[in-house]
Amino acid sequence: MMIRLRYTLLSAALALCCLSAHAQQTDGLQQRMSSDEFKAAGLDKLSPEELHNLDAWLSAHAKVTTRVVTETGTPVFYPSSQKRTRIDTRISGHFDGWSKDHEFTMANGQVWKTIDPDPKTCQPVDNPAVQIKPSLMGTWLMYVPSCYDNAHVKRVR
């Protein structure tokens, strides 16, 4: 019963991905981009034939992305089947501590939010090194070596 439900959900997800990829492939760049984006990319300088060839190439090399979400639509970044590993990166910009719900953008593009209720003040520093480590019960700890402390965090992007 459980295997059949998983198979049905997987089939539905794949069908949605294929429909989304097909919809993106049938629209050309000019339809998928705003006129400002189209001009900023320099695509307005292409001849109609060159633009058609570029659209054809992109359609043939489309990247399909499968996104796992919960019932509420919240993204799942680490499905339970994947092993969680430590992430070594840097906090982008100025850092002087944290408070509850403070969001940090990392150099690797991820965004993490603190979930600890207690604020922490640290020595001000720009672009500090950071380690985000798996913790108990599916949670994560962010360790900032220049601050000598941990905060419980949750990935938001």
Architecture overview:
- This protein has two domains: 2-60, no CATH class; 87-155, no CATH class.
- The strands form two sheets. A six-stranded antiparallel beta sheet has the order 1-6-7-8-4-3, with no helix packed on it. A two-stranded antiparallel ribbon has the order 2-5.
- The chain is an alpha+beta fold.
- It starts with a helix and ends with a strand.
- It is elongated.
- The model is unreliable at 1-25 (pLDDT under 50).
- Helix content is 31%, strand content 26%.
- A hairpin with a 5-residue loop joins strand 6 and strand 7 (140-144).
- It has helices at residues 2-26, 29-32, 35-40, 48-60; strands at 87-90, 94-98, 103-105, 111-114, 120-126, 129-134, 140-144, 149-155.
- It is built from four helices and eight strands; from the N terminus they run ααααββββββββ.
Number of domains: 2
Report how far apart the termini are: 33 Å
Helix and strand content put the structural class at alpha+beta
Radius of gyration: 21 Å
Secondary-structure element pattern, one letter each: HHHHEEEEEEEE
User: Taking all residues together, what is the mean pLDDT?
Assistant: 76
Shape: elongated
Which consecutive residue ranges, at least 5 long each, have pLDDT under 50? 1-25
Strand proportion: 25-35%
The strand count comes to 8
Record the strand order, biggest sheet: 1-6-7-8-4-3
* Count of DSSP H/I helices: 4
